[in-house]
Design brief:
Order of helices and strands: HHHHHHHHH
Radius of gyration: 18 Å
Distance between the termini: 66 Å
CATH class of one domain: Mainly Alpha
CATH superfamily of one domain: Tetracycline Repressor, domain 2
CATH topology of one domain: Tetracycline Repressor, domain 2
Shape: elongated
Helix content: over 70%
Number of helices: 9
Structural class: mainly alpha
CATH architecture of one domain: Orthogonal Bundle
Strand content: under 5%
Length: about 190
Amino acid sequence: MPKIGMPEIRKPQLIDATMEAINAVGLQKASVVMISSYAGVSPAIINHYFGGKSGLLEATMRSVLQQLSEGVKSRLRAAGPDNPVLRIEAIVGGNFSQNQVENKVVKTWLAFWSQSMHDEALFRLQRVNEKRLLSHLLLELKKLLPAEKALFVAQGIAALIDGIWLRGALSPEGINTELAQQMVTNYLELQLA
């Protein structure tokens, strides 16, 4: 008879183990056996809860995206409702928050982006993430700019976030979150001038 409450314990454990395995050896070499050993469980548990490695990667990214969403929302609440520039800075800051630039999370993001080109479920997650970022940015930019220009600037900020993030992820020094925020703020100031 299964123990009550085990999914709530096992799933986060396996998600963290997935990120640890990807951090250690990359997605291709992170086998179900390796991930289960990082979590201290049987490989059958991964198949039971997630249907295999692909389902586990999807659940892992859902967890990372949920943390990203919660971080952005928290920063938006702290920024208050009245200053669109502060709110845009909060959105950017959420994308470069400490939990998003942690090594194992960064490598998981890179694996996700690469795999999303070949996996329909992961591609959908990427599209949702992309649309959410643009939606947040557009909501604030439309308070400052005409709709067409707001869309242009939102796409520019999103491209800067992705580009800075990717360059930092591939750099031995990692992602410089302060420089990232400064670069996006500078771009925004130029567009608002």
